């Protein structure tokens, strides 16, 4: 045994010698990619828009969401080809709530709570520490202002703290506006911008839609100072506002990219709650169909149809009927039905929803609750019709679609006129809804509420993974227009749902 140990040093030398005599073949790695901006100049990139630009997610703006905004993703790509720093007006924390002089004015972000019978979006606990009365110093590259409409980006005083207190200004812009009289576009254009993105106009339609059509279509009214918050902006007001923005942003020769607007019917806020979620036992269905309930309403409608006050088609549309079991449609108020209350005050504008009607996401916690806590029969959506704000009817959808078509024609035309990269966000989000996007690991990112990875818990704004898909659409359009070769981002590097 001692002889064996004595041989070990010599054996080691032998092995080393053998290794030295063996040629080592190294496989060369891929040549490093040299990224170029093409004909664009990314050295001072400024992003202009609304909540979609700011990184709004889960019903709030908060620090992690701002970091996962699509402009911040673009800026990281631009840095590979001459892009400079990208400053963001960060919120003070990750809660998302805001105060004005200590008084809460906006709630916290949503998280998925598992405390009830089923998971549901719930505001995260705590008090947000972002006080909009405290101005941030300096200038910022992300000029996304949540809640802004197109014409508001041009409005002097839109970032006034005093205006916030009066309800005439925007609390997000108040934090980083250059002065009490500043405009968003003025502050953006004053930065010596060399490249910009502009994505605005969604709120000019969306607030009407998410309000269940409770606003007014202002087509023909060229004075936005007379509009209410949930109104649809006149197409000419939108076109003039967008043109003025592009004039300002391109005045010094900046290039850029502009996106059109998605259809609201493609977002989970309108595709999650079914029109027929009501289960009934046989006795309850029979009572609802009786003369003591909707039977009398149906009979009154039939009498007026016999008098040719309403058509047979409207009689069929308004007749309310329930059946035992699952799948009963909710009862809704439809203001576009013929007003029959002059003939009979009980014949209000009621009907049952159809699959063409879009119930808003927030209706999911309203349907089935009691309108009167002391009356166990006052069930919302059954004995008590859902108010207009809970449903976007087909007539209201038509108004949204008409405005959207006009806005998107304007955006495409101005993109061509100003020689900008054009991003078809409408087609992108429709694809996200219809088919989703397959990722490198085989997973699919789609528009399914809470689980699809594309949208956040508010059902309107993308999740970080969804924003990454948006960023790649911008990068594709920019590469095609300016002959750059930016690599894009990997959506799997971003979460599909924030876990608190």
From TrEMBL:
Matching InterPro entries: SGNH_hydro_sf (IPR036514)
Organism placement in taxonomy: Bacteria, Pseudomonadati, Bacteroidota, Flavobacteriia, Flavobacteriales
Official protein name in the record: Lipolytic protein G-D-S-L family
GO molecular function: hydrolase activity, acting on ester bonds
Gene3D superfamilies reported for this sequence: SGNH hydrolase
Signal peptide (residue range): 1-19
Record keywords, A-Z: Signal
Domain of life: Bacteria
């Amino acid at each position: 045994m001692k002889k064996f140990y004595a041989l070990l040093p010599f054996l080691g030398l032998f092995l080393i010698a053998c290794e030295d005599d063996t040629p080592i073949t190294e496989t060369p790695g891929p040549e490093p990619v040299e990224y170029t901006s093409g004909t664009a100049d990314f050295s001072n990139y400024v992003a202009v828009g609304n909540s979609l630009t700011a990184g709004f997610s889960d019903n709030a703006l908060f620090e992690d969401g701002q970091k996962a905004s699509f402009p911040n993703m673009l800026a990281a790509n631009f840095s590979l080809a001459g892009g400079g720093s990208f400053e963001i007006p960060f919120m003070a924390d990750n809660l998302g709530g805001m105060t004005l002089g200590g008084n809460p004015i906006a709630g916290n972000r949503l998280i998925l709570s598992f405390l009830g019978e089923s998971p549901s979006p719930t505001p995260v606990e705590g008090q947000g520490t972002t006080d909009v009365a405290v101005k941030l110093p300096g200038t910022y590259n992300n000029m996304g202002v949540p809640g802004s409409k197109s014409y508001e980006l041009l409005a002097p005083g839109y970032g006034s703290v005093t205006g916030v207190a009066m309800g005439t200004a925007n609390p997000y812009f108040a934090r980083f506006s250059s002065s009490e009289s500043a405009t968003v576009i003025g502050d953006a254009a004053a930065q010596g911008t060399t490249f910009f993105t502009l994505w605005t106009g969604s709120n000019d339609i969306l607030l009407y839609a998410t309000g269940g059509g409770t606003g007014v279509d202002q087509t023909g009214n060229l004075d936005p100072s007379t509009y209410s918050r949930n109104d649809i902006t006149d197409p000419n007001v939108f076109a003039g506002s967008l043109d003025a923005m592009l004039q300002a942003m391109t005045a010094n020769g900046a290039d850029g990219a502009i996106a059109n607007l998605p259809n609201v019917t493609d977002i989970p806020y309108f595709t999650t709650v079914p029109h027929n979620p009501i289960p009934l036992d046989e006795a309850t269905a029979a009572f609802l169909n009786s003369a003591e309930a909707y039977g009398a309403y149906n009979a009154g409608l039939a009498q007026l149809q016999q008098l040719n006050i309403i058509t047979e088609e409207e009689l069929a549309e308004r007749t309310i009927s329930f059946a035992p079991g699952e799948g009963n449609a909710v009862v809704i108020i439809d203001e576009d039905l013929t007003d029959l209350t002059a003939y009979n005050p009980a014949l209000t504008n009621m009907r049952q929803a159809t699959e063409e009607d879009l119930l808003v996401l927030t209706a999911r916690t309203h349907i089935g609750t009691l309108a009167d806590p002391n009356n166990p029969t006052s069930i919302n959506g059954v004995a008590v019709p859902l108010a207009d704000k809970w449903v976007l009817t087909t007539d209201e959808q038509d108004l949204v679609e008409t405005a959207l078509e006009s806005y998107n024609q304007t955006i495409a035309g101005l993109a061509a006129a100003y020689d900008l990269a054009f991003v078809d966000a409408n087609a992108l989000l429709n694809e996200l809804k219809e088919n989703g996007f397959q990722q490198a690991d085989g997973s699919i990112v789609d528009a399914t509420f809470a689980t699809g990875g594309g949208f956040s818990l508010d059902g309107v704004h993308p999740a970080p993974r969804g924003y990454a898909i948006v960023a790649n659409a911008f990068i594709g359009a920019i590469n095609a227009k300016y002959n750059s070769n930016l690599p894009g981002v990997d959506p799997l590097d971003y979460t599909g749902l924030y876990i608190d």
